[in-house]
Amino acid sequence: MTHSWRAGLQRGGIELRHLLRNGKELSGHLTNVVVALLVAGYVSDEVPGTRTPMSHLVLAGFAAYLLFQIGLISLPQILVTEREEGTLLRLRATPGGIPAYLVAKCLLVTVVAVGTLALLLGAAALLVDGPLPHGPGDWLTLLWVTTLGLLAVVPLGAAVGAVLPNPREALALLMLPTMGLLFISGTVYPITSLPVPVQQVAAVFPLKWTAQGLRSALLPDTARTAEAAGSWELPMVALVLTAWTVLGFLLAVPLLRRAARRESGSRLSARQRRAVESGAPPM
pTM of the entire structure? Predict the structure, then answer.
């Protein structure tokens, strides 16, 4: 296990260096920040029943969605692409290869997500008078909610990536449900404005709780009156996100191992041949 962690951290460091040299991929994360700032700059109302600017609620919601999106859209696409390229086939013959691979992806996604979150909050504070934590307690809440929010979706994203068919279908299959969760989880407007059954559906998924935890760190305490329970429910935030973390890890490792066992040289060659026949560049 120690060897897997060490190998995973080394692999994650290498992938981070490659990412920093990939301007196209970095620009994609920057675009998400720009979109969030534009939306926040356009909103001018206040959260109903409070003196909190609606733009602050939107920025906290976008911060949660960026964490969610990186773990549940970007990561599965990376995994599916690397499976198509034969990475899982090579890992099958490497002792501890799958756990090390998962550690590397967790490190990569965590650094990208935290960097994107810091850029969003810093740029929002400078450009659109965005919210920041007000004291040590709020900074601590921001830290643990961000950590648990990522842990709740990164292993789950790895599990999803292990079963999706190919990179093109992966994006199509993931985008619609994640966009649906964006609109029902109280990230772009107060969740209390939604019907109760919709609120109950949103409460099953981690995005709603990550957004609620980030709002507790970024918004004044008076804004809690706009929450469904009239409070931040931080113990429930921690409980739900921890449950999704455990579920994700229980699913991710066996599904990645299963995907690796199903890989073979003939399967890889057949996929590459179909890609060439369809006009895609060879992998």
Answer: 0.84
